[in-house]
Amino acid sequence: MRRYLAAARRRPGDPVPVPADPGPAPDDPLVQSYHPPHPDEWDAWGRAAFDLYGSFQTPSVRDRDTGRITRGEFDDDPASDPHRPPRHDPAGRVHRPLNQVMQRIDLDDVQIVLLDTRTRRTRRTDDPGLSAFVDAAALEQVLAVAAEAPVLVLVTPQPLLVPPYRTRSRDRPLGSRVERAIDLQIADYPDQYARLWDGLVTARDGRPTVTVGGDIHSSYVGHAPSLPLLELVSSPMSLVAGSTLFETLFAVPARLLRAMSGGSAVRDPYAPGAPLARIGDLRSRAVTRPDPDGRDLAVSLAGLGRGNPEGFGLLRIGRTAEHVYRVHASLHARAPGGGSREVTVELRTDRRGPDAMGPPEVLARP
Question: Angle, to 10 degrees, between the axis of helix 190-204 and the axis of helix 136-148?
């Protein structure tokens, strides 16, 4: 409430102070609202999650500086590791993250970028200057790689072919407000989301792109032919034992919420041919007019279905000839007899625009 009231009293254009020293956790409510959470604001369990993530998912600061292999030990002692965040840099700087926000894997023509859009989110989603799901510097690093990569594979925690908040609020007023209030997705940060998409489309300039996401407890393959772009979405949590019970317990409330929010209680939003997003909406903060020809529409090619979300996805990319790559995205249902969905597409690095990605081949196996 203290943070909410402080943010509500702020007038547009008022400066938001930054911590005088990034060492201790800030207690200024405006700083707490408009800057990423300081690691020491979390309790012991929350801080442990950061350290485990840094140990097993990304190298620590010391490991990156020295090049040694991560061993998973707790290395937050400033005496032994003075560069370990948040104890670093001159006063007046916002703390550096505890994990590596952007990682790059160089496979010749194929450039894989892993972008953490989770741990650096601000608590406010609608401020043009201070709202962000990732540090601006990390986003610029991603776009720089996108500008030079013949084939780009961008991996984020969540799907990218999601309409921004303003578009969803027009179509689903209640549901979009609920999603934004609980901070479900990066599409609820309209300014930086538009910056990401506009920069990505400009940087790629018609070269083939593959995006990978998860978190939504459903699996599908999407396609934006005008870019050209293929998206594979698969949620690792759907493999956890007990999710069937969870789905059963919350099936009725979930259907009621979808119906109240303007959606369908039974429609599968990722069925083949279902629209996912319009590129014009993704690139703009405003609600744009639909393309009469539907050329900028991204659609779902295949999915495991709303009633059977438990599954996992596999992505393979292989070079078949000079300037030619073959992408195979497959979804496999966990339940016996659930079958699989497979999408194969050819990428060409010597072409631009829709011709850089061949027509997808979709196969459903029992």
Answer: 20
